[in-house]
Amino acid sequence: MTKETCVEWTVSGMDCGSCAGKVRTAVERLPGVSRVDVALMAERLSLVLDEGKTTRERVESVVRALGYGIVPKPSSAAAIAGPGAEAQAHGAQASDPGSLPPWHRSGKARLVIGTGLLFLAAFAVSLLAGDGPARWGFIAATVIGVAPIARRALHAATAGMPFTIEMLMSIAAVGALFIGAAQEAALVVFLFAVGEMLEGMAANKARQGIRALARLVPRTALLEVDGKTREVAADILAIGQVVLVRPGDRVPADGTVLRGVSGVDESPVTGESMPRLKQPGDPVFAGSINTEAALHVTVTSAAKDNTIARIIRLVEQAESARAPTERFIDRFSRVYMPAVVGAALLVAVIPPLALGQDWGTWIYRALALLLIGCPCALVISVPASIASALSAGARRGLLMKGGAVIEAAAATTHVAFDKTGTLTEGRPRVTDLVPISGSEAELLALAAAVETGSSHPLAQAILACAQQRDIAGPAATAARAIPGHGAEALVKGEPAWVASPRFAQGRGVLDDKARQAAARLEAEGKTVAAVFRPGRLLGLIALRDEPRADAAEAMRQLGGLGIAAVMLTGDNASTAAAIAGSLGIAHRAELMPEDKVAALRDMAGKGRVMMVGDGINDAPALAAAHVGVAMGAGTDVALETADAAILRNRVTDIAAQIRLARAAMANIRQNVAIALGLKAVFLVTTILGITGLWIAILADTGATVLVTLNALRLLAFDPEAKLRP
Known about the structure:
alpha+beta, 7-stranded mixed sheet
């Protein structure tokens, strides 16, 4: 019986999509390996391994043979910071945990320096001793410089990948030597090394957005034990321990305020610019900054599960959810590379054979065509933009789970909003108590008994009102929610309900007087709950949940983007009309969960639909939409259930998220145009003999660097600035 294990490694040296493709293809061919996933920007290789057929060491040796570094991925939270972070886990503060070694210490930089010195030496010989002796210097420079490239090409070929940039480069360099272009061959090898180094520097710059998130969490914490504090590593904090967070300190772990009142700057986590007041019982996030007074915080999450760690995991794992455009380019490149090789062969052979042209001239042009045909720039054009957009969004509390979500969000034409907790604050308060049989105290006591233990916003408002009036409800058992209607429980052995007037009317307890009172309250935009026992209505409770301060502005911004907005709610028609009217949007009321799904499917027939809800009660609707967005300040549900999440609980962030997605797709189109446009131009000029080998390698590496730098512009993109009037 075999035992399969999920294994992860950190792979360094991957600078473009073809690098990730080479690692994936080579590893997939090993026996006992399945479900291989290579994340370029996260530098992650994950797979399921049957170690009875292939060992971990074998996987590592295959990857190293391709020219990449590989180490097992550490399980500690420190690993999230990227290379070099582990050395910081025990409190060392001298260096940046996400920093990279100096550029000149990398293997690619050493290749640049070595090939550059060899080329300069050969060039100096040509000046001092003439072209004859210099030719041998250029040949030596070419052979020494191309040797490591050819070795990687051979390893890739034996792994089933004959058409790689290393193979094309090796053929071009060796071919140039055979036709007497030794000086140009040496220059091409040097330029190739420079291009690879620049690609690596650009790719690492793109990764810095993710590494910067990891640096938000402090390495140490002040642990409180028996009234005394001592400094410990933050990644060893356990749930239930208490830490002291002094003014100016970063919070070392997700937790709940135990003692103290202070303003906390959550902008590093959610992007919210204004500090939020925190008092006992309020949650705080790892990485946020205490601004005013000391706080004593009870840890609620281990380091590997804190909000920052989960955001980083989400951003890294989002690479696996590749955009349809990216999948198409991958399929295209697999056909494109052999086609380029075939075209180069025809260019080398047909003119000399059919037209009697010079063999050397056309072989030279064919070799240049091989270099121009490398699809590195095209393959990286999408993932580089996606990674930059994900990082830019994460810094502003806008999370999207991969390229597929970004592409779908960019195409959004309709946005459907839940009401309670999404368009409104989700913190309603009791405005009216209307007793029908009995007193206000009896009415409120029974309602509080039924709602005890419920987390629903309306239930919390009723319980808060009872607490303010110092009214304690009797003990209740068998409490349960009635989806779309309310709640019920056994109170003193007899059923009791807190439910919508419509549900109460169906139970036959709502008379004309009660119906008129409910209608009057609902006309005022209030939500009405009927409190009753079998055959007896105790009374009505009216509550109101005000729209969020930015909800109307959000609707204006969506309109400016050409997007239609609608509110879908289970609340009564009058309340829904009052809220929707104040926001200037369409609405559909009194919807059960299945009715919301049906409404979304109807809207999907007219365009691309985004659904925005709280991530809990709206789960079916979120799943039914093209893009489901959860509102929630760092909750597990907000981060893990929907396609995307808004951490700041700001409705305007929906428009910002769509704007960011559209900017990402525009950036992708620009990158594809750059990659294909440059290749098309140099393809023609090469065949016509206008440009040669060294221009060809510049066209390839230059295009790769250009698309990567263009993608990096998204890191500075501010979707909110674009939406302000």
